[in-house]
Amino acid sequence: MILVWLILIPFIGGLLSWQAERYSRGLPRWIALLTMAGVLGTSIWLWATGDYSITGTGFAAAAGQTPSWTIEFQAQWIPSIGASFHLGLDGLSLLLVVLTNLIGVLAIACSWKEIERNVGFFHLNLLWNLGGVVGIFLALDMFLFFFFWEMMLVPMFFLIALWGHNIPGGKGRVYAAIKFFIYTQASGFLMLVSILAMVFLHQQATGKLSFDYHDLLNTPMGAQVEWWLMLGFFGAFAVKMPVVPFHTWLPDAHGQAPTAGSVDLAGILLKTAAYGLLRFGIPFFPHASAAFAPVAMWLGVVGIIYGAVVAFSQTDIKRFVAYTSISHMGFIVIGIYAGTEQALQGVVVQMIAHGLSAGALFILCGEIYERLHTRDISKMGGLWSRFPNLPPIMLFFSAASLGLPGLGNFVGEFLILVGSFDAAPVVTIIAASGLILAAVYSLYLVQRALHGAPQPLPEGVQLNKQGLLKDLSKRELVMMLSLMALLMGLGLYPQIVMDTAKAPVQAVQTIYKAATTPSVVAVTGANP
Amino acid sequence: MISYLPLVFVFPLIGFLILAFGRGRLSENLAAIVGVGSVGLSAATTAYVGYDFLTHLPASGAYVVPLWTWMSVGTFNVEFALKLDGLSLTMLSVITGVGFLIHLFASWYMRGDDGYGRFLSYMNLFVASMLFLVLGDDLLFLYFGWEGVGLCSYLLIGFWYKDAANGAAARKAFVITRVGDTFMAIALFILYREFGTLNIDELQRLAPQAWAVGAPLATATAMLLLGGAVGKSAQLPLQTWLPDAMAGPTPVSALIHAATMVTAGVYLIARTHVLFELSPVAMQWVGGIGAVTLLLAGFTALMQTDIKKILAYSTMSQIGYMFLAEGAGAYQPAVFHLMTHAFFKALLFLSSGSVILAMHHEQDIFKMGGLYKKIPFVFACMLIGTLALTAFPFTSGYFSKDEILHQAYLTGHYELWAAGLFGAFLTAVYSFRLIFITFFGPERWRQAQAHGHGHGHDDHGHGAGEPHGAHTLDHHIPLAILLVLAVVGGYIHLPLSAVLPEAHIAGGDHGPAYIAHLPFVASMAGLVVSWLLFLQFPQVPAALARGAATAWIGKLWKNAWGFDWLYDALFKAPFVWAARINRNDFIDGLIGLIPAGLRGAASLATATQTGGLRWYAAVAGAGLCLLIAVVALH
After folding, report:
1. Does A462 reside within a domain?
2. Which residue among A1, A495, B7, B18 has its CA within the 20 to 30 Å range from the CA of A513?
3. Who wins on pLDDT, A465 or B88?
4. Could you tell me if residue A486 is inside a domain?
5. Is A463 within a domain?
6. What is the 3-state secondary structure (H, E, C) of A363-419?
7. Short-list B255, B251, B245, CA closest to B109
8. A228-251 pLDDT, tens per residue?
């Protein structure tokens, strides 16, 4: 039941803060913050007390055993079509739930001053989106999963369309919101077709109509069919990840979204795609995935390099961070399809590290925008002498982005590369050039935004008595320092995360390995 | 008392944290006490631990202090563990000892700078990272420090951030070394795949069992590691960042770009020498790169006018000697030269910093001259440093460089030996050129003054243009100690024999006796040539500069053989071009064709709905014809 509450509380909190706006403008913020802090605390408590050495992923019910999860919940939902309200938690989903709730708290905290219009409805959308994402990470029924997958879109659409920016020269927030919606919707449709096809195949074979993860895991299908269904899933996740060339919604969405929307997008929404591949894409279609791996890995390489090159020439700081995200997500694609334990653990660490560092960079973008009223990098220059604290913090997160050892991103990227080398040496070597490009674009940003001679201030911006701009407030400092501490913790002692993710990662790896060595399938196909 | 070893890097880290969080709130004196004191404590700890190590030598030759497990995924295990052996102790002593002196000097040099605390915080962070680099017993831990020093180097080169040129130099340094680092990372991937570990001792034990000498994979690995080493140590072909790095404050050049970080490549090769020895090809490359770099850098130094750039090329050239030695299998002399070079090059850089401040931030030696009367102590330091650099008998550089050349000869690397010998001549020419032009000859700064080129930032309260010396202890003490070390450092016996092998010298052959004296002869010849060219007959270089061919060569040397130009054309320009033309992401444009196409199709379809009966009838008729035709032809 606790899993249901993890999803439900944000929904209730959202409704409450929507209604609370009648009483005061501050109240919705506090309600939303307390709600998310509450679920964050709950999820951390689950982490501390649970046994994460088990996972149901990769379980073949044919073996006659009951798949087990750290926590599982199942209730009847729509029995006529075989869909049930089935939730399950293992190490992988736990980590992402914690990340979601943490990013949620930050998203609320960073909008504290930014959002002035319709505060209540804003928080309704934000919290429903977060609740939907948690649902994605917990759902073990494909119907339910798809329900949450679509459900997180609508609030996000409103966040961009209603509270977004219309930056000069951009195509507008509504355009960006619609683009985001169409991309995700169209690709989600591919996944729906695949899900339905799988359900029917399963029904044909067993006579049981079921959307359940455990049932569908051993759906018998021919190689050809498996290939097409795998592509349907991959399509949905590739758009969400995003994989080049399906990425172009992301810079627009980030460019126009409010800070909280960007933090949410970069921090967790993109991770749902990686999660989907790990939880569903590969376990459902191991053979097709293994056959597809070279293509996917090359797409990852293209993403790393393409994202980095385009990032270099961006002038809007949020589009810049968006393209760097595309580049970083390329590593995740490679890691998932390399399928070794190291690479998959690297994927998990990279997901969290990128969630924290990209989230932090978007918060910083928002803070700079609040103070300078511009997101044009060429108008920043010399910020180092304008603020005491903001520039060093930005430098820190740029260093994280370029993969400095000691911070989480390095652990993720290095594990991915070292783990992929055995599977695909050429891909890995070319992907490693991403380390150089990351240094090029990150330091170029530092140069253009922070270093150099101070630029004339944009119109309407005033310096304070010390000749400085208003530095980070306590709220902002606490956010930043905690993110820095987390990123360093992840960089110096990633084991705490990797131990939690160990069981699911090993399950995925076993499935994958069985698929790549056909002779073994017959022997170990039953239970990893 | 080996358990105190972690304190060596804990002190500078604490110093960094205090300074980083106390920015703007600490007074200069307090910042100096924290920043210099932390490195001082680190040096004291090193001395204590080092004494203990030398008096209680472990049977295995090394102590290992495990801290915690960094990553453990399946078979991939990486420990944070510190390893103390003769080699790391040597590096530790240089880093903390010379580092402390340079910090002390820096606390004087940077007085009055806005970013005083920030400067010392970066310096402390650098020392800590450099200690990780040399203490790590795992290649990934080493890589941790390796990247950390790179970042600190970046921060300190670009320390005066308001000038965009400094930022460009800093980025150049980071990105070019990152290229090398990436090669090194790939070497790590190969090593892990082959041996399932990145622990250095394990690798050195397993590699010779698995790889035959000359195995292709062994060569690939060694070459990739060499890629990392040449990036960090500014050797060909990744050398171009070092001269630009002189944009940083002079103590930075002394600490990072002379004494410690740039020698990390030498350390890496020594540390993984077993892997290199599995590949004779890679060993040839190590020696060859060293020899070519030392010559190219020597010629380039001849034509520089900026006092720091001369020293930068000289550093590049001296590290070339160390690579040369390693290529010949003479690891011990290489590390020995690393240490003596740290002494005399730190001395030279700090003295040059003193000269620069005395000249009111002038770095062009052709605007100096006759300074020996004005700043005699600095002149003495500079002269001693130069004598050590040119391997004058019984100075520290004499012992180390002679040993390198001697062993190169005895191991049969005659071409390396010849290059080194000629390099010794070049070293003497460019080093004494610096001495003669700066400290002797006409007092050119008087002309500059007369022509009204007085310097803007004379913040020391002296008459404009008049050189003035420093008189404080924090200036004198570091120079004096380094001066002593530059002279007597050659008598230090390094505890390296348990870590590094002796060079393979056939049958105890010592070669002809005159071989040992040739380097001295070469240096003296260089001194004389330098004296003739730059002090006695300055009209000769002037005439050479007018000749078409000689002027062209001079230009080539001055621009460091055009590598910057080449790399700009080959790498930077295409990248920037590709980024510029694709600023708007052409894929977005392509995908935009889909809605555009839909819209077009929609308008076409709309256009057919004309409402005209005749049009509808015609279309219906045409359709019917088509249908019949298809059916009939089928």
Report:
1. no
2. A495
3. B88
4. yes
5. no
6. HHHHHHHHHHCCCEHHHCCCHHHCCCCHHHHHHHHHHHHCCCCCCHHHHHHHHHHHH
7. B251
8. 999 999 999 999 988 988 888 898
Residue A307 corresponds to which tokens in the numbers above?
A: 């994202």
Task: Report CA dihedral (B106, B107, B109, B113) to the nearest 10 degrees.
Answer: 120
Amino acid identity at B449: Q
DSSP secondary structure string for all residues of A171-197: --HHHHHHHHHHHHHHHHHHHHHHHHH
A-interface mutation test, from B73, B132, B166, most A Cβ less than 10 A away: B73
| pLDDT reported for residue B506 | 67
- Cα gap B342→B46, rounded to integer Å: 17
Q: What is the pLDDT of residue A528?
A: 38
Residue A494 to residue B140, Cβ atoms within 8 A: no
Cα–Cα distance for residue pair A389/A368, rounded to 1 Å? 12
B399 vs A60, higher pLDDT: B399
A342·B163 Cβ contact <8 A: no
Rounded average pLDDT over B560-573: 88
User: Does pLDDT of B456 surpass 70?
Assistant: no
B271 CB-near residues (< 8 Å, 6+ apart):
B87, B142, B200
As a whole number of angstroms, the distance between CA A219 and CA A196 comes to: 12
Q: B169: distance to nearest CA of chain A, Å?
A: 11
| Local confidence band at B450 (pLDDT 50, 70, 90 cut-offs) | low
Q: Residue B78 contacts by C-beta under 8 Å, 6 or more apart in sequence? A: B69, B70, B71, B72, B138, B140, B141, B198
- Mean pLDDT (chain B) is 87
Check CB contact of A521 with chain B, cutoff 8 Å.
no
In a domain, A466, yes or no: no
Specify the pTM: 0.90
pLDDT at residue A118, as a whole number:
87
Domain that holds residue A22: 2-58+66-455+472-525
Say how far apart CA B186 and CA A425 lie, in whole Å: 9
Q: Could you tell me the pLDDT band of residue B373, with boundaries at 50, 70 and 90?
A: confident
Task: Please tell me the total count of domains within chain A.
Answer: 1
DSSP state of A212: B
